[in-house]
């Protein structure tokens, strides 16, 4: 389900369903609730809104009646994904107009970045880093330039579990050091850029794992192979797969926007990571397809080059901070997440 009811929306709907002959006291209560709902309404500027996670976040914000400003490099593409008839009132702005959106926003969510699941050439590696660091730098610059009375108070910025490097034996949480490979370097620079936001701006960095959902992300690429009876572990199958259901990730971002305790690094992963072999076995079971046919290392390296490290190596990442904050994961086990996605 995309729509999660807040206390204010539940209370408002209760007041609306009251019979016409309510008392003056009931009228006053209704008026106070409407005012409270209006006061809690946010204006959120979002980069990466046209991507897999961004689309779901925009839907969630709209369902909760918040104002949305989409910061994009392609207005026609964004208008196609968010047509005015379905998203009335949404603001779509290309880069020269971003300043007018960021200024006056309650919060900014930064999700922009070129997908990493592709063949890495030197040019692509440069774009993977630049697409993240450049947009983050631009967003931070616009936040800092905004007058104090119109400056966003919250920046929720994506980063990735690639920060920790890879390991088959290590366990990582938010206090773990960074790795020493290419993706670790990208994440360090990405996060460091976000942290240059004005000291009065609360910054939450969400280190995102592999996001599961039917209409995008890793699962959308894996499902067709299983449906053709060609699915199975990638490489050894022993590499760790730190995953999160897209609904839980969107909810984590949403709570980070609204809860002042959500600050600093927060791992965006489910509490029970699995080995990739188990993930493939569970997916095959849910789809009613075998998962015995492994994809060998050399085939992936031939297809993706250095980019094969994304799927051939992994890390076991735990959401320690989210659990400390009391965040409730709807999908704690990969089997339940896969069943929900495939229903």
UniProtKB/TrEMBL annotation:
Highest taxon of source: Eukaryota
Domain NAD-dependent epimerase/dehydratase as annotated: residue spans: 45-261
Pfam families hit by this protein: DUF1731, Epimerase
InterPro entries linked: DUF1731, Epimerase_deHydtase, NAD(P)-bd_dom_sf, SDR39U1
Residue ranges annotated for the DUF1731 domain, each copy included: 295-341
UniProt cross-references to NCBIfam families, sorted A to Z: yfcH (TIGR01777)
Name used for this protein in its record: NAD-dependent epimerase/dehydratase domain-containing protein
Organism: Arabis nemorensis
């Amino acid at each position: 389900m995309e729509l999660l009811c807040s206390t204010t929306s539940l209370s408002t709907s209760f007041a609306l369903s009251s019979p016409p002959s309510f008392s003056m006291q009931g009228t006053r209560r209704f008026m106070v609730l409407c005012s409270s709902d209006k006061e809690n309404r946010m204006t959120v500027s979002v980069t990466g809104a046209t991507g897999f996670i961004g689309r779901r976040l925009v839907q969630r914000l709209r369902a909760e009646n918040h104002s949305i400003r989409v910061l994009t490099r392609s207005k026609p593409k964004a208008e196609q994904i968010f047509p005015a008839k379905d998203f009335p009132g949404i603001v779509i702005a290309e880069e020269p107009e971003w300043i007018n959106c960021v200024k006056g926003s309650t919060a900014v969510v930064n999700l922009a970045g070129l997908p990493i699941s592709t063949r890495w050439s030197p040019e692509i590696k440069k774009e993977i880093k630049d697409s993240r660091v450049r947009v983050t730098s631009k967003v931070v610059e616009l936040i800092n330039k905004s007058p104090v009375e119109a400056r966003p108070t919250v920046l929720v910025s994506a980063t990735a579990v690639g920060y920790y490097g890879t390991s088959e034996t290590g366990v990582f949480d938010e206090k773990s050091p960074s790795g020493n490979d290419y993706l670790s370097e990208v994440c360090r620079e990405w996060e460091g850029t976000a942290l240059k936001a004005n000291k009065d701006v609360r910054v939450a960095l969400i280190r995102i794992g592999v996001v599961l959902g039917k209409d995008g992300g890793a699962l959308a690429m894996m499902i067709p192979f299983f449906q053709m009876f060609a699915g199975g572990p990638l490489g050894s199958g022993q590499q760790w797969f730190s995953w999160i259901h897209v609904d839980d990730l969107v909810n984590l971002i949403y709570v980070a926007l609204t809860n002042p305790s959500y600050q600093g690094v927060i791992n965006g992963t489910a509490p029970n990571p699995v080995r990739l072999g188990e993930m493939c076995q569970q997916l095959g079971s849910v789809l009613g397809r075998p998962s015995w046919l492994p994809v060998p290392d050399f085939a992936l390296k031939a297809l993706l080059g250095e980019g094969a490290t994304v799927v051939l190596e992994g890390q076991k990442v735990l959401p320690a901070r989210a659990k400390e904050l009391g965040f409730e994961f709807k999908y704690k086990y990969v089997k339940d997440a896969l069943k929900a996605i495939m229903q």
